[in-house]
């Protein structure tokens, strides 16, 4: 009776569980500095260090010389394999 | 020892429990705002959202679907849509 269970496992999956479910799937990763990666997630860890294969990197460059006219240019780069340091990751989302 | 002393953050736990599965607003340091149904959150403030929408200047600029947001980017999380 006196024994109360401490630290009962939550039924709700942790946020990182979502990333685990993305392994071997194509994901979009939003990075700091207006960059995005789209590629197949091979591996990740708790820092969100990521290994991505067959990656397309998109860099968004905002030209706002005129204050009203804000145009966005993009530069795309392809990589066979990337190791991404977790601290630059903002968001990870599976592609539908 | 009651559960409150064992886990001083259990009050927060109650709050999170109360907003789980509801629509929340997540504001990042970058100024970006995301709305979505809160799946879960952990001690780093890592957040997973369902039906995540990215809002800029009051307009939905992107539908992410499911999304994981890394906690270090999060400024605050607001309950309610």
From TrEMBL, chain A:
Transmembrane annotation, as ranges = none
How is this protein annotated for GO cellular component?
Answer: spliceosomal complex; U4/U6 x U5 tri-snRNP complex; U6 snRNP
Q: Name one GO biological process term.
A: mRNA splicing, via spliceosome
* GO function term, MF aspect, one: RNA binding
Q: Does the keyword Chaperone apply?
A: no
Q: Which UniProt keywords apply?
A: mRNA processing, mRNA splicing, Nucleus, Ribonucleoprotein, RNA-binding, Spliceosome
Where is the protein localized?
Nucleus
Which SUPFAM superfamilies does the record match to this protein? Sm-like ribonucleoproteins (SSF50182)
> What CDD domains does UniProt report for this protein, alphabetically?
LSm3 (cd01730)
* Purpose: Binds specifically to the 3'-terminal U-tract of U6 snRNA.
- Describe the family membership recorded for this protein in Swiss-Prot or TrEMBL: Belongs to the snRNP Sm proteins family.
Oligomer status and interactors: LSm subunits form a heteromer with a doughnut shape.
Q: What is this protein called?
A: LSM complex subunit LSM3
**Provenance organism:** Delitschia confertaspora ATCC 74209
- What is the gene name? LSM3
UniProtKB/TrEMBL annotation, chain B:
Pfam families hit by this protein:
LSM
A GO BP entry: maturation of SSU-rRNA
Subcellular localization: Cytoplasm; Nucleus
Any one GO MF term held by the record is: RNA binding
| Domain Sm residues, every copy | 11-81
* Superkingdom classification of source: Eukaryota
Question: Keywords on this record?
Answer: Cytoplasm, mRNA processing, mRNA splicing, Nucleus, Ribonucleoprotein, RNA-binding, rRNA processing, Spliceosome, tRNA processing
> Where is the major localization of this protein?
cytoplasm
A Gene Ontology cellular component where this protein is annotated is:
spliceosomal complex
Q: What does this protein do?
A: Component of LSm protein complexes, which are involved in RNA processing and may function in a chaperone-like manner, facilitating the efficient association of RNA processing factors with their substrates. Component of the cytoplasmic LSM1-LSM7 complex, which is thought to be involved in mRNA degradation by activating the decapping step in the 5'-to-3' mRNA decay pathway. Component of the nuclear LSM2-LSM8 complex, which is involved in splicing of nuclear mRNAs.
Into which family does the record put it?
Belongs to the snRNP Sm proteins family. SmF/LSm6 subfamily.
What is the protein name stated in its UniProt record? Answer: U6 snRNA-associated Sm-like protein LSm6
